[in-house]
Amino acid sequence: MGFILLALGLVLIAEGLVYALAPSLVERLLEMLRELSEDQRRNAGLAALALGLILVWLAFWFGV
């Protein structure tokens, strides 16, 4: 349970920093996402999911 809370906290910190430091960049990114097809967004989501799983696996492998 502690790892889940840690992970959620880290995600919220990263998201908060992006919105606090570069809100106009977020707007442009959302516009770019709207221009992508549904399949392209799905593939990007699957790639992010795979990368996240790899990072979590590496963290556990290194003993974090």
Task: Report on this structure.
- By secondary structure, the protein is mainly α.
- Helices cover 89% and strands 0% of the residues.
- It is built from 3 helices and no strands.
- The chain has helices at 2-21, 23-35, 38-61.
- α1 packs across α2 (23-35).
- The radius of gyration is 15 Å and the shape is flat.
- It starts with a helix and ends with a helix.
- The mean pLDDT is 91.
Summarize, please:
The protein contains 3 helices and no strands. By secondary structure, it is mainly alpha-helical. α1 (2-21) crosses α2.
Q: Can you tell me the overall shape?
A: flat
Put simply, the count of helices is 3
Q: What's the Cα radius of gyration?
A: 15 Å
Largest sheet: none
Based on the structure, what is the oligomeric state of the protein chains?
single chain
Average pLDDT, rounded to a whole number, is 91
Quote the beta fraction.
under 5%
Beta-strand segment tally:
0
Q: How far apart, in Å, are the first and last alpha carbons?
A: 14 Å
Order of helices and strands: HHH
Features:
64 residues; mainly alpha; 3 helices
SSE layout and pairings?
Blueprint lengths: L1 H20 L1 H13 L2 H24 L3
